[in-house]
Amino acid sequence: MKILRILLPTLFLLLLVLYLYNPAFFQATNQSLEKVLVKKDRDKNGMLDWDELNKQTRFTSVVDALKDPEQVYILNLSQLNLRSIPAEISKLKNLQILELQDNQIEEIPEEIGALSKLQYLYLQKNKIRDIPAAIGKLRNLIHLDLRANEIRQLPDEMGYLASLQELDVRYNEITRINSSLSDLKNLQALRLADNKLVEISEDIRGFENLSLLDLSQNTTLDLQETLSNVSKIPNLRSLEIRNQNIQKIPMSIAELARLENIDLSGNSLSEESKREIKKILPRVRVIF
C-alpha cells in the first residue's frame, strides 16, 4: 500500500504531462472508441457495409436460403428463367443484396416491401411493366437497377426511398418523371437514357446531391426547356445527352457551376455551335 501511495501521484503527473504535450493521444483514443461504438450500433441494426457484405455467403437457391433465413444477406437468383419472384423471400429478414437480373419476371410482388434491410436490388433485363407501391417501404435501399424492362411509369412511393443513391431505369418506356422523386435527397446518379421522356419538369431542381444525370436517346424530349431546368441542379458534375439531334445548347447550361463533364456525342452540332459550347463551358470536359 505504501508503494501504491508513492506511485499514484507519479502516474498522475505523467498523464498530465502527456495531455499537455500530446493531446492528440487522447483524441485518437476517443476516435477509436467512437469507431467501435458506431460499428456496434451498425451491427445492432443488422446493416452491413459493402466490404462486410462481400464476405457473406452468396446463396443461389431459395430452398437453401430458407434453411437458416437469419443468416442470409445475399441471394442471387439471376439467369434462372424465373417468371415470378418467390414470395418466400419475405422470410429473409436480413437480406441486403437481391439479384434477380436476366430472368422473365413480369411483376414485383407486394412481399418485396418486407425486405426492410435490403440495400441493393437488381432487376434489370426482365419483363416488368409496373412497380408496386410496396417498393417505397425499402427505406435502406441504396442502389436500384431496373434497366431493360417495359416500365412506363414510376410510382410516387419511390419518393420514400430516403437512402437511395443510384437509380438506373435506362431502356424502358417511361414518359415522365414523378415530382415525388425530387424527395430523394441522397440520390447521386439518375440514369434515364433510352426511354420515351417528353419533358423533365422543374421538379428536377430538387435533386440537391445529384452529380450524374443521363438523358441520352430520348428523342421526344424538349431539350431547350429540359436543359433550362437541369441547369438549376446545384451539384451536377456529369451530364450525358447523347443522340438527341441537338443543334444548339441554351446559354443556361453555363449556370451549372460544378459541371465537370458533358457528353454530346451523336448530335448534329455545327462547328460554330461546338465552339460556342466550349466558350460558355471553358472548364468542362466536352465530348462531341
Compose a concise summary of this entry:
This protein is of the alpha/beta class and 288 residues long.
Structural overview:
- The chain has 288 residues and is α/β, with parallel strands linked by helices.
- The protein is built from 6 helices and 11 strands.
- α6 links the parallel β10 and β11.
- The longest helix is centred in the first third of the chain and has 22 residues.
What is this structure's SSE topology?
Blueprint: H1 2-21, H2 24-45, H3 50-53, E1 58-59, H4 62-65, E2 74-76, E3 97-99, E4 120-122, E5 143-145, E6 166-168, E7 189-191, E8 212-214, H5 223-230, E9 238-240, E10 261-263, H6 271-280, E11 285-287
Parallel strand pairs: 1-2, 2-3, 3-4, 4-5, 5-6, 6-7, 7-8, 8-9, 9-10, 10-11
Tags for this model:
288 residues, alpha/beta, eleven-stranded parallel sheet, 24% helix
Q: How many H/I helical runs?
A: 6
Dominant shape? elongated
Spell out the helices and strands N to C: HHHEHEEEEEEEHEEHE
**Rg to the nearest angstrom?**
26 Å
Number of strands: 11
Q: Provide the residue-averaged pLDDT.
A: 88
**Main β-sheet description:** 11 strands, parallel
Beta-strand share of residues = 5-15%
Strands in their spatial order, largest beta sheet: 1-2-3-4-5-6-7-8-9-10-11
Low-confidence stretches: 24-42
Amino-to-carboxy terminus distance: 83 Å
Specify the helix fraction band: 10-25%
Helix/strand-derived category reads alpha/beta
